[in-house]
Amino acid sequence: MGKTDLASLAGVIYALFLLYAVARLFRKSTSGAIDFIVASRGLTLPAFTASLVTTWYGGILGVGEYTFSYGVSNWLVFGLPYYLYAAVFALFLAARSRRSEVLTVPDLLERNFGRPAALAGAGMMFIMTVPAAYVLMLGVLFNFTTGWPLWVGVVLGTALSVSYVYRGGLKAVVATDIVQFFLMFLGFLILVPVCVFKFGGWSFLVENLPAGHLKWDGGLGVQAIAVWYFIALSTLVEPAFYQRCFAAKTEKVARSGIFTAIGLWMFFDFLTTTAGLYARAVLPDLANPVQAFPALAAHVLPPFLQGVFTVAMLATIMSTVDSYAFICAVTLGRDVVGRWRGKLGDDDDESLPLIRLSLTVTAILAVVMALLSESVVDLWKILGSLGTPVLFGPLMLAHKGKRLDGARTAGVMVASGLTAGLWLLFGGGDPWLGVEAIFPGLLVSALGLWWATRS
């Protein structure tokens, strides 16, 4: 068997698994909205944890891009703030979310603030959950490993990721996530030890990395790091967290599952940050930092293990594409169109055809956005800066049982989103007037909601 055949064998096995999953799911049917959207609220602790871990870590190439460029500050940007807010979610929001007995976040908003606020929140959630960044990563990975044009990888990866969701809903997402969970850890448990054995440990990194890569801020300055602690507030409005909690078997499963996931994310972050540092030390002239992980694997691993690592990255990314594409489709089909038409309910099967149609719309939109973007990290920053000001305040008030005028609340949500959006536009994607866009958005939201609670 030749080198190319060895490298692709693992990929073929993974593709066969996906085809098998699709074939099985197309023989089954869902029994209504609750079954399709929240898996009949039956997720056990292992399924909950594995699905949440994989869904929230699809940005694997973005992590490689950031670590290659800015070193250990990756842990302070994409690690610590998200652990902290995930713990806050587990402590204060997980059980409340499960008790709410709703299907989606806009349902929670409508319960407390009325339909206008629910529609405003659903519109923002739709924008936030379009999996463009992750689809872009699939395209980059396919391009690097096969030489296919970026657009081919983007289209093919998207089609593979959403095919099994179309029929099986959340159950299909969770079923594939469990396998993808083991694959994502396997890949880096192979790559990092090989790098240590081949090149040496910490002393090798110190000798071969730029000095700034071992500084806490990566040479970027305080604000560039601090802004991510506000962007990470998006964890408290993260649709995947809410959906998994709505689907959990019990309140205890929801809370314990998030804490377990935090520990697993910490371990995985150690592996990915280490791999990113090795990529910068070993391949300092790499033209595209997004390719840091696959380039490192191609440099240090034998063909078959390189194939295994490629599959691990595919699994990591696809586990997020399918989940966010599903949430996005539910948001558009049920929470925007269905709510606009005034036809919603736990047993309302009329929303299912709309959700499936919206899955196709979501896939097309994700492909277009991915092909127009150049940076995974930039997409994260833009979407986090827009979505957090719109949803954070209203959701926190909803959890406290506050009931506000729907039109006023919706107005505040729209105003905060427009403020952040215009700030991004005037700054050309950079901090305008030296201020990141998320801050004025949050300020408008805080002032507006304060006014709404006293009117």
Offer a concise description of the structure:
By secondary structure, the chain is an all-alpha fold. It has helices at 3-25, 33-38, 45-55, 60-70, 73-78, 80-100, 105-113, 115-129, 132-146, 150-163, 165-199, 202-208, 222-231, 239-247, 251-282, 292-300, 303-341, 351-372, 376-399, 406-427, 438-453.
List keywords for this structure.
single chain, 455 residues, mainly alpha, 21 helices, 78% helix, disordered N terminus
What is the H-and-E element order?
HHHHHHHHHHHHHHHHHHHHH
From the spread of the alpha carbons, the general shape counts as globular
Radius of gyration of CA atoms, rounded to a whole number = 21 Å
Unreliable stretches, pLDDT < 50, 5 or more residues? Answer: 1-7
Number of helices: 21
Helix percentage range: over 70%
Write the layout of secondary structure elements.
Blueprint: H1 3-25, H2 33-38, H3 45-55, H4 60-70, H5 73-78, H6 80-100, H7 105-113, H8 115-129, H9 132-146, H10 150-163, H11 165-199, H12 202-208, H13 222-231, H14 239-247, H15 251-282, H16 292-300, H17 303-341, H18 351-372, H19 376-399, H20 406-427, H21 438-453
Provide structural commentary.
With 455 residues, the chain is mostly helical. Helix content is 78%, strand content 0%. It has 21 helices and no strands. The protein has helices at residues 3-25, 33-38, 45-55, 60-70, 73-78, 80-100, 105-113, 115-129, 132-146, 150-163, 165-199, 202-208, 222-231, 239-247, 251-282, 292-300, 303-341, 351-372, 376-399, 406-427, 438-453. Helix 8 packs antiparallel against helix 17 and helix 11 crosses helix 15 (251-282). The longest helix has 39 residues, at 303-341.
